[in-house]
Structure formats: structure tokens, C-alpha cells
Design goal:
- This protein is an alpha+beta fold.
- The chain has one domain.
- Helix content is 15%, strand content 37%.
- A hairpin with a 4-residue loop joins strand 2 and strand 3.
- The protein is globular.
């Protein structure tokens, strides 16, 4: 069952990444923690010379000690970068996600709901070189994973 979830999580990340045009200068890092069959965590960090994107999503079953509207702390390399609010899903599980886009930091975002990278972000944003790298640790609540290529 855990292997099935890993395949589904990997496929979801691949589909998400396929919709983004990349160049040789892009750095795409992901991690997927599906070792715990009851909770899932997926993270993606993309850094190009002109843009950075960060997404984290979390899913847990209803039988965990979680409540709707509960805030989960999001940490990157030990820095608190934000909070994800849990929402109840139709299947009885809970989910939370946060996305940052450097276009919002520069005023280039076309969508008003795009969220800027927070000032306490531990990495550098474009046009500087890649801010995070392989081995960076990402946590949401007590669940975490390490970024890989």
C-alpha cells in the first residue's frame, strides 16, 4: 500500500512539473515522504534565473489528532517560513498546502492570490543563485523530508 501511495505521489509531482517550462539553468528539487502509510507529504522547489517556486502539501487521515483550521508550522532548514491551515476533505481526511512564488515578491504576479516568499526564507531568490539545495530539510508539523534532485 505504501509503495502504491509513493507511485501516486511521484506521478502527481511529475504531472505538476510537466506543466512548467524549464531550461538547463533551472534547478528542480523535490521530496516525497510516504514512508508513513497514514500521512503524505510532497514538496517541490524550482529555482531559475528569473523565478522561484515552492510548494508543500500535507494529507493525513481523520483518525489523527487533527482538527480543521489547525495551523501547521512550515519550516525550511530550521527557519519557520509560514503556516498551513488544515482543511477537512470530503473523504474524511485532512489536507494543507502552502505555495510561494517569487513573482509576487517582484510585483510580476498576474494572480492576486499568489503568495510572496516570506522575508525569513533561508535561501536566495532570483536573480541570485539557487537558494536551497539537495539536502535541505523541509517540515510541516512533525512530518518532514529532504530535498533531492
Amino acid at each position: 500500500m505504501a509503495q502504491h501511495k509513493l507511485l501516486l505521489g511521484t506521478a502527481a509531482i511529475a504531472i505538476a512539473l510537466s506543466g512548467i517550462a524549464t531550461s538547463r539553468a533551472d534547478s528542480i528539487l523535490v521530496c516525497d515522504n510516504t514512508n508513513n502509510a497514514s500521512e503524505m507529504l510532497a514538496v517541490r522547489y524550482i529555482h531559475s534565473p528569473t523565478r522561484a517556486l515552492f510548494d508543500i502539501s500535507f494529507k493525513a487521515p481523520a483518525n489523527k489528532s487533527l482538527e480543521a483550521r489547525q495551523e501547521l508550522e512550515v519550516r525550511v532548514d530550521g527557519y519557520v517560513v509560514g503556516y498551513a491551515t488544515l482543511a477537512a476533505r470530503a473523504d474524511g481526511s485532512f489536507g494543507a498546502s502552502v505555495s510561494f512564488d517569487s513573482y509576487a515578491n517582484t510585483g510580476q504576479a498576474l494572480d492576486a492570490t499568489t503568495v510572496a516568499f516570506p522575508p525569513m526564507w533561508p535561501g536566495l531568490l532570483p536573480p541570485a543563485s539557487v537558494g536551497l539545495g539537495v539536502g535541505s530539510r523541509v517540515m510541516i508539523g512533525s512530518l518532514g523530508c529532504t530535498l533531492e534532485e
